[in-house]
Amino acid sequence: VAEAGTGFAFPSSTMYLGRDEGLEEQKTRHAEERVRAWRQQGVLPFPHFPEALSREKENTLDWPPTGSPGAAKAPDEGAPR
Predict the structure, then answer these.
(1) Going by C-beta distance under 8 Å and a sequence separation of 6 or more, which residues neighbour residue 44?
(2) Residue 70: what pLDDT?
(3) CB within 10 Å: which end of the chain, N or C, has fewer?
């Protein structure tokens, strides 16, 4: 193999490390204040949404996407030709 000018590949991995500078204190405080206010008002926007909004969004997502393996087939799709 060496005479042919090549070699064998051995398993390897590369790891890239980065340093996160963390969250900005002012933005963190602002977010915490907003959530605290929502809690006090009893209007946390998650995980439940107002019933009217839920009805408005119901069945508006094409899922699974048309053409994907899990999507419902059209009535004539898959019929013998």
Answers:
(1) 35, 38
(2) 78
(3) C
Measured CA to CA, the distance from residue 73 to residue 79 in angstroms comes to: 10
Q: Report residue 54 as tokens.
A: 């839920």
Q: Do 46 and 53 touch, CB atoms closer than 8 A? A: no
| The model's pTM | 0.37
Identify the helix (H) or strand (E) that includes residue 55: helix 51-57
The sign of the dihedral angle between the CA atoms of 58, 64, 70, 75 is: positive
For 34, the enclosing helix (H) or strand (E) is: helix 25-41
Residue 25, SS3?
A: helix
Which residue type is seen at 7? G
Residues of the chain with pLDDT under 70: 73-81
Q: What is the predicted pLDDT for the residue at 37? A: 94
